[in-house]
Structure formats: structure tokens, C-alpha cells
Amino acid sequence: MKKVLFLFTAVALFSCKKQDNVNFKASFETTSIDTLLNEEISIRALAIDGDKAWYAGSNGKYGWVSLSGGKNFNGVAAHDTILPEFRAIAQTADDVFIINAGTPAFLYKISKDGKRTKLVYTETGDKTFYDSMQFRNAKEGIAIGDPTGECLSVLTTTDGGETWKKMPCNQLPRVSEGEAAFAASNSNVIVKGDKTWIVSGGKKSRVFYSVDKGQHWDVHTTPIIQGKEMTGIFSADFYDEKNGFAVGGDYEQLAKNSGNKIVTDDGGKSWKLTGENTGFGYASCVQYIPGSNGNELITAGPSGLYYTFDRGVSWKKISEDKNLHTIRFADSKTIIAAGQNKIIRLRLK
Q1: What letter does residue 172 receive in the DSSP assignment?
Q2: Stretch 25-40: mean pLDDT, rounded?
Q3: Which pTM value belongs to this model?
């Protein structure tokens, strides 16, 4: 494993700001980086499972890397001659679930010992394209995708992922013309207890919110840049039921760092732009640092990895790597990041 050390002094690079009577302070000063996987694969889906980081990616590849020095595991899920492009992953205590972007859609249930792989859902159609997936508890899960009709595609399970059903459009809000979702980092759907958030992008970029596991929905507008096919929200995260953050921008203008960061403190009902003309441009993933009181976030994208300690007002680059698509936290001081041909670990100190 190769280690690279990046240094920055929190006090020198960040002036502690006061925002809404809160004093913000950076929680780390350095990052060290080592490589956990290096092979030919594009990865946009990660799930942390104790001392393992599960991944799913291109050419039907999936597996885990050990975070404790143990053996890694890799497999291939192929259907006839098709090697799916996996972009979403979710887990329960015993199983991992992966679904691909594109048609046909294949949703696999994989036992965590790697011994059993079962195809539990398939879907065909020119517009079939699944983006993200999460479990809210041991039995109930949700996967979301682009519209195939007048609504986003929403799959649900209530039996631990053994069977999945697609919700009819009469139970979901209608989408606008050119509104869809992006399979950028498995972060288009967020669940906390009974609450669910789905973020859309494209010509319209909104937040779909349900307080009752998807039985009823409210739809909220956002001020993020939108109006073109490759604009809008690409990733979102919620620290708790009130505080959330979303990133994206214009994929055709990767350096544009305005109109690409939005924040909410009322559960997604209202959003405001933040960090205008600062930090990164287009970003594919955002995640809150655990235990940060909703103050600290990390983003990934072609601008590199960026960090904020003041809820998105100011940003500092912590890695120059432009080929990372998605990130997840193993703990409050350990980031697992994946992208083109690699999985790396960043330790915050």
C-alpha cells in the first residue's frame, strides 16, 4: 500500500466563522491516504460493513476490500453474456444488494459470505435506468431510477430484499419534462427511519419527500442550477431529519462553482445556495462527517476531494485526485473513496 500525506493547518486555512451564532472549527489538520484496491473497474457504489467496504462497479464486478488487513473478495454477476454496469448498492445484516444502470435491470441479492448470489428482480424497457438504493431496516428497502412513465421509478421490498415491487405512478408525484436522476454515487435516495428523500436532476431538479415510507409524497423546488439535461442535483445527504446538503452542478461545465451547492435546515422543504463561487465545481458525491453536528462535509468529483467545517460556506481541497466518484465514512476519521480503477482510504488526523 502506498501512503501519501497531505498537510494543512486548520487555523491558517480556515478562519473560524460565526454563522447563526455557531462557532465552527475544523476537526482535523492532516490526511493520510493509502490504496485498498487497484484494478480495471469504475466504482460508484460503496457500502461500509464493519471492517469491510463492499463495492459494485463496471463489467459486472463486485466484492469487498478489507479495512483491517484481511483478505479481499471479488466476484462477477453476469446474466447470459451481459456484464451489468452496477451503480447502486445496499445492505442488511446478512446480505448485500446491487442493481445496475441501464436495461435490462438486474437486482442481485448476495450473501455476505459471498457464497450465494440470487437474481431477485429484473426489468426491461428502453428507459429503464436505476440510480440508487438503500435499506431503512432489516426488511424494508427502496431503489430509485429514471422515469419510465410519468413518475420516477421506485422499487420497494418488505421481506428483506427477497422480492421487489415497482410502485405505480398513481402513488407517486409526476415528474416534469426532462426530469430524471443521476447514477453518480448511489446517493439519490436517503432514508432515516420512516422518512425518505429522493433528489432529481436534469431540466428540473427537485426533492421528493415522504414521512411515511413512501405512502405519501411532497415535492419541493430547489435553487440549484438546472434547465439542461446534465444539470441539477447529483448527490445529497442528510445529517438528521432536518439538516441536509446537496451538490451537483453542470456536468458540461465541470469548473463552474456557483449554483452547485444547496443546504436545508427544515428537512428539505426549503433550500438555499451556499458557497457561491468557492471550492469545487461539479461534484458527484457529498457526505456528512459522522458526529460533526451537521457542520462538516466532504465532497468528491473531478475537482478533487473538498472539505467544509462551516456547513458549506467555505471549502478546502484535501485531495487532488480527480478520479474519485463516491465516498463513505467507515468512522468519523476514516473516509473510503472509490472511482476509476481504485478504492482508497483517507485517515483524518
Answers
A1: S
A2: 95
A3: 0.94
